[in-house]
Amino acid sequence: MVSALTQQAPAATEDIQPLCHIVTPVGCLGYGLDADITEEELIRLSTSPAPTAIILDSGSTDSGPARLALGKLGSPRSSYVRDLKKLLRLVHRYHVPLIFSSAGGDGSDEHVDEMVDVVQELVEGDGGGNRKTKVVAVHASISKPVIKKRLAEGKVKGCSFPVPPLTEVDVEDAPRIVAQMGAEAFLDVMRAEPDFNVIVGGRAYDPSPYVAYAAYHALGASTSRAPLHSLESGILGGFFHMGKIIECGAQCATPKTSPARSTIYADGSFDIIPLDPNAKCIPRSVAAHTMYEKSRPDLLLGPGGTLDLTKSTYEQLSDGRTVRARGSLFHSQLVGGSPYTVKLEAGRIRGYRTLAMGAFRDPVLTGQIDSFLSRVRDYVTYQHREYSEWWELDLHKFGAYNNGAPGEVWIVCEAIAQTQQLATSVASTARVACVHGPYPGQKATSGNFAFGMGGLSEIEMGPQPEFCVYHVMDLEAGEEGAIEKPEHGATPGRLFTYRKVTFGSQGLDDFTNLNGFAPDAESSNQNGTSKPKPKYSVTAGYVSVEDFQLPAQIRTLGDITPVLRSKNAGPYEITLDVMFPSEVVYRTVKDSGLLNADLIASLYSLKVEDVIYSGFFDQAIAFKATIPRMRNGKYAISGSFGEEDVHGSQMYLPLMNLELSAQLIEKLQATRAL
Fold first, then answer.
1. Where is the Acyclic terpene utilisation N-terminal domain (predicted)?
2. May I ask the CATH class of domain 349-466?
3. How many C-beta neighbours within 10 Å does residue 670 have?
4. What pLDDT does 384 receive?
5. In which residue ranges of the chain is pLDDT below 70?
6. Residue 145 DSSP symbol
7. What are phi and psi of 345, to 5 degrees?
8. Which residues are paired to 414 by β-bridges?
9. Are 482 and 141 in contact (CB under 8 A)?
10. Cβ neighbours for 154, distance < 8 A, ≥ 6 positions apart
C-alpha cells in the first residue's frame, strides 16, 4: 500500500500566481511574538501582487472553563497590550489588515469589547501615532431563549458520547454562552466593511477567519455576494485545511516554532513555511498536524460541514522548508441538504475551592503514603460529620513514593464545598492531619509536612468553574452569517452581529478590498542598510524529526518514536499520537498488530467500547487513539474538581513505556539495514 505521503504529487508549479498570503506570528494572541521576524516576512511579501493579512487565534477551551464561567481573560491584559502594540505598528506601517478570533481567550462579548478597548488605548495613547484605525468587533454570544427553543425542538446534541444531554438547567446556570462562528460571519463582515484595519472576532472555529479571507478573494472580494458553499469542495477544502494548520503558527514545523506564513492558490492548494530559519516543514510534519488535539486525523467536523483529508497530498518544494498541500475536500452541510450546525460552549460555578499543599520527605512515610492519606481522609470526614452542606476532598500526589525509597512526595489537598468557609475548613483539617498524623515507624515526631509556600497555610481559590454546555446546535437557513447590530430590536436572519468603530485621526490607511500592500521606505532600509536579523531562535539546538535514529537498545514504544504525545481534544476527550521516524519502522509496527483499540483500553483501564477512535494515519506515518477523559472510573470534564492535567499533555506515559516484544524488537533492529 502506498500512502498519500509517498505518492508522486503533481509536478511542482512553484511559479503559479498566489491568491493571497497569510502571516501568523504566533498560535495564540497574548503568548508573545517575534515582531522582527514577522516584519521581515511582510517586507519580503511587499513585492507580491497578492494581498496579505495577519491572522491569528486568541482563544480555546483547552485551559478549562474559568474564562467562560468566571469571565477571566485567557492571558493577563498586559500580555494582550504587549502583543497588539507590536501588531498594530505592522498594520499601520505596512497597510496590512489584522484579524484575530476568540478574543480574550473565550470569545465572549465582554472580551471582544475589552480587546477593542485595548486597540483604542494603543492607537490614541502615547506612542500610538493616533493613526486612523477602523475596527470591526464581531460578537458570538447566543441568547438563552434561542438555545432553549432549539433544545425543545430536538436540535441540540452533545459533541461526542461522553457529553451528557443538555438540560434547561445547564443553560440557565451559564452566565454566558458562545457559539463557534464559521467562516460565513467573517466573510459577511469583510464584504460589508472592506476598508477595515482590524477585525476583533468573538468565539470562532479556529480556521474560520483564515477561510473567510481566502474565500473573500476567491469569490471576487466585495463585488460578489456568492455564498461560501458555492465554492467547489476541493477549493473550500484547501482553505479549511490551510486554516486548520496555520492557526497554530508553525506548530507543524520541525522543530516546532511559532511564526508561519501560508500562501493560498485559487485551486485550493496552499504552501506552509515556518518563518524561523532554523525550522522547516516536511510532508509528514504537515500531514501530522491534523492529528493534533483532534479526535481523528482524517475527517474533521466544524461549523457547516466536514473537512475530508483522506485524499490530501503533501509536496516538498525546492527550498527544502516549504510544503505544498492539495487534494483536501470540504463537505458542506448546506450542499448536502442538512442544517448548518455550530458548537455551543459555556461554563458555570459549582461551589468554592481551597487548596493546602506541602511535601513529605521521610522515606518511612513515603513508603506507606497511600495508607497514611486514607487516614487523613477519615480524619477530615470525622471532623465534618455534623455539617449539612456538601463538600468533597481530593488528595493529589506528585513525586517518588515507591517502597520506602528516598524521595519527596508533594501533596495538594484540594477541597470543594458549598461555601468558601467550609472549603477552607476541609482543606485546613486535611493539612493538620498531614502535619501531625502518626504512622508506623515514625521517628520525626515534631511534624511530617513541609508547608507554608507563599506564606499561607491554605489558599482560597474562590468559585469553582465547570463546563456545562459543549453541544452542537442546528441553525435555521442563513443564521450562520453576521449582520451589523441595530440600535434597537432583534437581528433578523442572523445569529451573529458586529459593530464598527474608528479610532485616531491621522490619515486612514488606504488598502481597498484588503489590498494596496505597500511598505514604508523607512521600514525596509535604514541609512542604507537592511533591517537586522533576529538575534536568537527558539529552535536552536533542537533535533528535527528527520534526524531521529533508532537507539542501539530498543525496549519501549517511546524508544522508536520521535514524537509521542497526548492532548485534550475538547473538554471531554484525550487524544494520543504516535509518530514514527520512517515508513519502514511504521510498517513494521503496523503489521505487528501491536497498536489497536484493545491495547489502548487495557493501558488506560477502559472498556474497548469506550475507545472513541483508534487507527493508523498513513499520510503522517502515525497511529492515533482518542479516549474519554476519566477520573475515578467515571467520565470527567477538563478543569473540574480534581483536575491534575487540564491540557491532557501528560497522559502519554502508558504508551511511551509500553514494552515491545522480543520478536518486534528483532524486526525493528533489522530495519537499520534497509
1. 80-436
2. alpha beta
3. 11
4. 98
5. 1-15, 221-224, 401-406, 488-492, 507-544, 673-674
6. H
7. -135, 140
8. 355, 394
9. no
10. none
Alpha helices in 410-532 (DSSP H): 420-436, 521-524
Residues 434 and 382 sit within 8 Å (Cβ to Cβ): no
Query: Against a cut of 0.85, is the pTM above it?
Result: yes
What separation in angstroms does the CA of 553 have from each of 333, 578, 668, 669? Answer: 51, 19, 11, 9
Per-residue confidence (pLDDT) for residue 507, from 0 to 100: 66
- Is residue 272 within 8 Å of residue 245, measured between CB atoms? yes
Q: Where are the domains of the chain?
A: 20-141+176-340+475-524, 349-466, 547-673
With contact defined as beta carbons under 8 Å apart, do 316 and 273 qualify? no
Sequential DSSP letters for 355-422: EEEEEE--HHHHTTHHHHHHHHHHHHHHHTTT--S-EEEEEEEEE--STT-S--EEEEEEEEESSHHH
C-alpha span between 181 and 158 (Å, rounded): 17
Contacts of residue 157, defined as CB under 8 A and 6 or more positions apart, other chains included, come to 165, 166, 471, 472
pLDDT reported for residue 400: 72
State residue 541's pLDDT score.
Answer: 55
Q: How far apart are the first and last CA of the chain?
A: 18
- Which cell numbers hold the place of 470? 459543549
In the DSSP assignment, the letter for residue 544 is P
What 3-state class would DSSP assign to 588?
A: helix
pLDDT at 493: 81
Cis peptide preceding 255, ω within 30 of 0: yes
pLDDT for the residue 543 = 59
pLDDT of residue 511: 42
CA 667 to chain centroid, in Å, comes to 37
